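Why do we care about 3D structure at all? Because function follows from shape, and shape follows, mostly, from sequence. That is the central idea of this module. The next example makes it concrete: a single protein chain, its amino acid sequence, and then its structure expressed as tokens.
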Amino acid sequence: IMDDILPSKDEVESRKTTALTMVLTGLRKYTNYSIQVLAHTRMGDGSVSKALFCHSEEDVPEAPADIKVVVSSTQSLYISWLPPTEPNGVITKYSLYTRVVNGREELNNEKRSLPSQQHFYESKGLHPHMEYQFWVTASTRVGEGKSSRVVSQITTNRVPARIISFGGPAVRPWRATVTLPCTAVGKPKREWFKSDVALRQGGLHNSQLLDSGDLIINNLQLADGGNYSCQVDNGIGTDRLTHTLVVQVPPSAPVLYVTSATSSSILMHWKCGFTGNAPITGYTLFYRRGSGNTDEMQLSRHASSHELKGLVCGSTYQIHLSAQNKVGTSPTSIMLHVRTQGQAPGMPASTSLLAPNSTSVL
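And the structure:
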């Protein structure tokens, strides 16, 4: 039994059984799976069955990945959070909890439901110089999940520059557009850097800086990948976050080489080159005999060798290979010209065909 998690997790697991049924346990929640079966004998593996696709059910989500709170005015606090890394289903709402603390005394508790697409909230009309604590949970149709960590902030008369956006990895396909947010409070001066080199408006030919502080990069190319940092300062406070941009491109050509050839088969291996920052999804093998038509064969993304069988002896074959990921297809490998062993049959000598006697010829 081979279960293959789709589409973003490049994981394959094999399980063996002598029975005709099996219960797969320990699966990821709310995840697509493809399942294939093959039989074994002492002579080797059989053919793989057609893939069966199924989906595990929803559960309550994990905790939101992160939460932060900053002062936005003398009587307001701004809370923002990240969705759970494991939502375990479709998020239906968020619940924001507020607790007011005066020293060791807990004065008030409040719960507020917010739409699933909202990842921020500004709490207004607060008492000055009081400590407010916040935490958030996510819910699916199954129920409410785990709580984020608790963050606290005291309302103040001064509003230091603080970033309410979150940094971290951002993975995008080439030729796409990415928005790197840098929303801040305190009306700060804002600067963007790529690998500690300051970016000016128009500094990147395919980018623009918005008044909101966001950096937009269009028509992404591999060279656009890297660390982008936003720094804010208003004289009262300073803050900085970093986005790590990964641009996914088609893979480079695999390196194909032949390890052996018989009169009817060719055994080849290959090495995967640069994957393009995305998992390889498969290979395509192209081959043809002489100047004949080109045949192609789809091979598993996990394969690193293949044996072409049923070939004609004493013939030259042209063979090359390409790789695919979810973004596109690589250039093909260098074409190899490989000759099978043996030679084409020639014209037999007449003495081997004729057996005459006095009255007949055989």
